[in-house]
Amino acid sequence: MATQKAEIPFDDTLVDDLLRQEESRTFEVKRIGRKFSRTLESIVAFANTEGGLLIIGLEDPEKAVGRERVFGLQEKIENWDELRRLIRSRVTEIDNLPYKIFELGCTLGNGSKGTLGVIRIDKSPAIHSIVNDGTWIRLDKSNRELTAPEIQELMFARGTITAESQLANIDFDLLETDYWQSYASRRRLTRPIANSMYHIGLAKKDNGGNLRPTKAAVLLFTEEPSGLLASKAAIRVFHYRGITIDARPETNLLKPPKTISGPIIRQIQDAADFVVQELAEGIHMGPLGFEIVQKYPVRVIKEAITNAAIHRDYHINADIHIRLFSDRIEIESPGLFVGPVTIDNIQAIGTHSRNPLIVNGLREFPSPPNIDAGEGVRMMFDTMRQAKLYPPVYQSKERTARDSVMVVLGNQNMPSAWRQVSSYIDQNGWIANKHVRKILRTDDTLKASKFLKEWVDKGLLIVCNPDEGTRVRKYTKPEKRLIEKYIARFGDRGFMGAFNDFFSYRPGKETHGGI
User: Lowest CB count within 10 Å: 66, 204, 456, 494, which one?
Assistant: First the structure.
């Protein structure tokens, strides 16, 4: 944990922005009272969910308005040090808690000068609790304590425990397939299959001392893992006519869904081949009746399918779903983002695997689908950009019908306007209708609004201030942080640079989690 040591910045304008910010899944305010338990609960809840920002020294908006809410740390300054001590002593797994503490100077409600405390908490790779006060998660505007079964489910969701390492009551004879023979030959494994798997971590002894294969071994080598595990572990492909799913009895599926089963390495290859074949066959009609040319880079399709198969949560009894539309591909994998991974950081965070046994096993096949170098997602973004297509869009939970991660690959050419808008947001943090009109070289407000709506619908942009009128709305990328004027003013230096990294406006439910 790092504490800001530079001179405390003074900024009343920023505090005004904080006062306008509503409490949400990723933002909360508290006064510096002696009831530290609620503050610790929020810190733990943010860490166990998607991260968050906690401002100490502000009253709840229901109890006061405007500058009257600013009590500052000076209300009980001695409690600020006590709170920091309690974080270290009462939060479990403290060495794994990703948090930082800052102070911000401002004018208090009584007109004197004072400071606010700012605690940034990132999504944690661990599960945190409070000593003698339970384990908490963050809801939209409050925290909730978990029961023991819910804690276990959270551990599966976060990847601190995983189904792949559980033992399967299956004879080793069923694993001695051509896939095992190819794998064993590649790794020069000469012992009998049970002993070989034991030595490489794919088999373990049960409570009776008998060797049993792990579920990872069953998923890697058996011909029908779904049947042997009595669980859904396949890939299903749905090909639809048009750009939506028709809920009426006369479905708009072009053909019956395709179920692809078998060991994971075969599922990945067969699914990729089937998708590419489907896209290459026949005429794909768009909503206006014009033929749509499908031109997704094949390596992006295969990488997305590979990621879905190797990082999915096999604790969840559900198949991977691939949905083909005339304008996009959706690849939905059961389970949430593992460890500290979020939509915000997925391009930069590198490898965090839920299923290391599966990942390591696939890497050792003669023709592995993955090289486990942590570059796959970045490759997808780079390749789509080189193909002049929109970047992949990741969605999770609130945007999907179940606990899952979905990546959407769009088939539309990325217009030059988007490239300029994307660059503008990278430099300024946000964009508005007037800036888009300037980029488009038009005075047509409606035209700019249509572009912005399209990009929001695709998940490329989010609205920063959805309660405002359309002409004054601000837009940013899901992975960007906002307080835009401070980015321009302070850059990456000191407190403000760190502050800009994690403070965000969020519209309604947070579909793009993380801080």
Answer: 66
Tokens read off for 501: 């990294």
**How far is 104 from 15, CA to CA, in rounded Å?**
9
Tell me if residue 354 falls in helix, strand or coil. Answer: coil
Phi, psi angles (nearest 5°) of residue 346:
-60, -30
Give the C-alpha separation, 31 to 390, whole Å.
Answer: 44
Please tell me the distance from the alpha carbon of residue 363 to that of residue 383, in angstroms, as a whole number: 22
What mean pLDDT, rounded, does the chain reach?
A: 84
Q: Cα–Cα distance between 153 and 470 in angstroms, integer? A: 41
Neighbours of 96 (CB within 10 A): 14
Strands 99-107 and 113-121 come out as antiparallel
Q: Which residues contact 492 (CB under 8 A, 6 or more apart)?
A: none
Q: What is the pTM of this model?
A: 0.79
* CATH number of the CATH domain containing 466: 1.10.10.10
Contact 114, 106 (CB under 8 A): yes
List pLDDT tens digits, range 445-496: 888 888 888 888 887 888 877 767 776 788 888 755 433 333 333 333 333 4
Q: Is 437 found in the same domain as 313?
A: no
Using CA atoms in the order 19, 25, 31, 34, what is the torsion angle rounded to 10 degrees? Answer: 180
Angle at the Cα of 240 from the Cα atoms of 235 and 245, rounded to 5 degrees: 100
CA–CA gap between residue 42 and residue 51 (Å, rounded): 10
Handedness of CA 14, 20, 23, 25 (dihedral sign): negative
Q: What's the number of domains the chain is made of?
A: 4
What six digits make up the tokens of 302? 């295969």
Strand, coil or helix: 113? strand
**Rounded CA separation 343/477 (Å):** 11
CB 417 within 8 A of CB 451: yes
Give me the residues paired with residue 475 across strands.
Answer: 431, 463
What CATH number does residue 318 fall under?
Answer: 3.30.565.60
Q: Which amino acid is at 232?
A: K
> What whole-number distance in Å separates Cα of residue 332 and Cα of residue 407?
7
Looking at the fold, whether 405 and 325 belong to one and the same domain comes out as yes
Predicted pLDDT of residue 487: 34
Which residue range(s) make up the domain with 329?
232-410
CA 290, CA 303: separation in Å to the nearest integer? 29
pLDDT tens digits for range 189-214: 999 999 999 999 999 999 999 999 99
HSE at residue 141, side-chain half, CA atoms within 13 A, is: 8
